[in-house]
Amino acid sequence: MHPDPPAPARVAVAQVGATAGALDRNFEATLEQISAAGRLGHDLVVFPECHLTGYLFDDPRATAAAAIGLTDPRMAGLVDACRRSGVLATVGFLERDGDRVYNSAALVDGRGVVGHYRKQHLPHLGADRFVAAGTDRGPRVFDTRIGRVGLMICFDLRFPESARVLALDGADIIAMPTAWPSSAHLLAEHFTRVRAAENLVYLAVADRGDVENGTAYLGGSQIVAPSGEVLVRADRSEGVFATTVDLTAARDKRLVFLPGEYELAPFEQRRPELYGVLTQTPEN
After folding, report:
1. Catalytic residue among 82, 119, 238, 263
2. Among 75, 184, 203, 213, which lies 20 to 30 A Cα-Cα from 258?
3. Which among 57, 48, 49 has a CA at the least distance from the CA of 20?
4. Does the annotation count 49 as an active-site position?
5. What digits encode the pLDDT tens for the residues 41-55?
């Protein structure tokens, strides 16, 4: 499940704004931000939800018009920027696939798109009102040079199963683009710490702190350790916030309080045979 143990990695969350529908401008800014991350020695930089396209659209036509495919030529520019800077980047965008639009995140390095994920849980907010929910049961955790990176997006955080699936698939760190509105304090202050601690993984969350189409974003981008300790947390200021992490800490799923006397192994002590109700489809 795991490649060789990674060396310490420099992980960054980019709390930066975007303009809804202004794709060329958003891409250009992202290229500059990736290059800057490389100059600062960052290994992984996580950008906010729908960073390339904007998020707060008011109608389905504008949402669809902003969506792009994975083969859009501008995506190749991101790959080239990652190659030149030596950076891994997780970027959010509205994705077009045939006649459907998804809220997606792509993990990109200098070789191409390492993996991508379509948001599975959609709130009644912004572009999520007009996109399809992701249903792909394929991989959401991807091998990279720094370790195994899992992907989820914003509202997925409300569902403990989302993070647990990534942890069970061997994620060392979960990269989570988000677009928290200013009312989402509970998510930023508590849910992030709980998801990291209950799954013993790192969690890197990138939000925005600006205003888009009249809606203020919360900010609060953060990196959380498997212990639940918040290593880095932003206010609403724009910027890139980073720390060095030892991703091997996410590979030991034991909790040792007194060696040999008080030790817990929550992943080994799971009782999935008793959790059947979790996989039942709710009745309308």
Report:
1. 119
2. 203
3. 57
4. yes
5. 999 999 999 999 999
